[in-house]
Amino acid sequence: MRIAQVAPLLESVPPRLYGGTERVVSCLTEALVERGHEVTLFASGDSTTSANLTSFREQALRLDPAPQKSIVAAHLSMLQSIRQRADDFDVLHFHIDLLPFPIFETVAHKTVTTLHGRQDKQDLAQVYRRWPGYPLVSISDSQRKPMPWANWSETIHHGLPPGLCAPPSRPSCDYLAFLGRLSVEKRPDRAIEIARRIGMPLKIAAKVGDADQRYFHQTIAPMLEGAEVEFIGEIDDSQKSEFLGNAAALLFPIDWPEPFGLVMIEAMACGTPVVAWREGAVPEVVDDGVSGRVVSGMEEAVAAVAEVRAYDRRRIRDCFERRFDASHMVARYESLYLRLTEEQPILKKA
Predict the structure, then answer these.
(1) In terms of CB atoms within 10 Å, which of 4, 84, 183, 336 comes out highest?
(2) Taking the CB of residue 44, how many other CB atoms lie within 10 A of it?
(3) Chain CA centroid to CA 325, Å
């Protein structure tokens, strides 16, 4: 099949540092090429891929040092160019939320839109009602709850290549880990409190975006003083196996309806158990009692850390391979593409 993968322009594909959506797009794109499909990746020019790369911007937006950038303008320019080439593809797979809807309305039947963000925001419902013809993919069943009536085609959990993150031969297991975005809904303050109560060191590898600077300086920075907490900052894929694999547990103490939580399966790939709050997709991702514990409060979380330290790390890795190896994700997308292609209307020539 001729497949277009349309990535956000915020990060490169794969991302240099933080960037869950772009990492998933990269995994999917590379696997589809390996399976023999003709894939074109629309992404920033600093992306790396074995597909045909078409870029409309030399550098991803977030790491571009230019002081003034328009996220909307960059994406609209890309989308208009893709629309002019729509007949070149059997399937157009969008990973940029709702931006394509007004532009691709007449070819909605040949598109797939994977929604990577939360769906409980005001005004989203009226957009899905206005453009009901777009086949949607949720990344968890939980993500669908605000709008169960939308045009959902599949729920397809994220997956990662088995070699991207791997367990170390002799993990030290002498600290707790927090990895991701340092923002109020991710609740790193809870992670610090858990580590303090247990008396274990905590290592935080996190992105501090522009919108999170105030939260970091006013709430988190004071909590680092005098605590056995090491703030590392952002790390890349080459550092994750060591960072996650040597942790006694990954703390995922979120306070929002997380659509998936890629870091949880990164930890599982390293054989590291996860202690996560019962929010959003967490109960779908964590096999409670096998790959970690799903908790509802601080006392449960503290107790869970002691429990998961005794878990079989080989069994956790097996759980990752059985459920979240990228091959499972890719096979389901490939099946969806085939189904949509078969259902496409036959256009009669004038």
Answers:
(1) 4
(2) 26
(3) 14
Beta strand segments in the chain, E: 2-6, 38-42, 52-54, 91-94, 111-115, 136-138, 152-155, 176-181, 202-207, 229-231, 249-252, 274-277, 292-295
Tell me if 151 sits within 8 A of 336, measured CB to CB: no
pLDDT at 70: 84
Question: How high is the pLDDT of residue 349?
Answer: 43
Q: For the chain, which residues score pLDDT lower than 70?
A: 226-227, 344-350
Q: What is the pLDDT of residue 345?
A: 57
pTM summary value: 0.93
The domain limits of the chain are: 2-159+325-343, 176-324
* CATH code of the domain made up of 176-324: 3.40.50.2000
Strand ranges (E), 88-185: 91-94, 111-115, 136-138, 152-155, 176-181
Common-topology check for domains 2-159+325-343 and 176-324: yes
Strand partners, 1: none
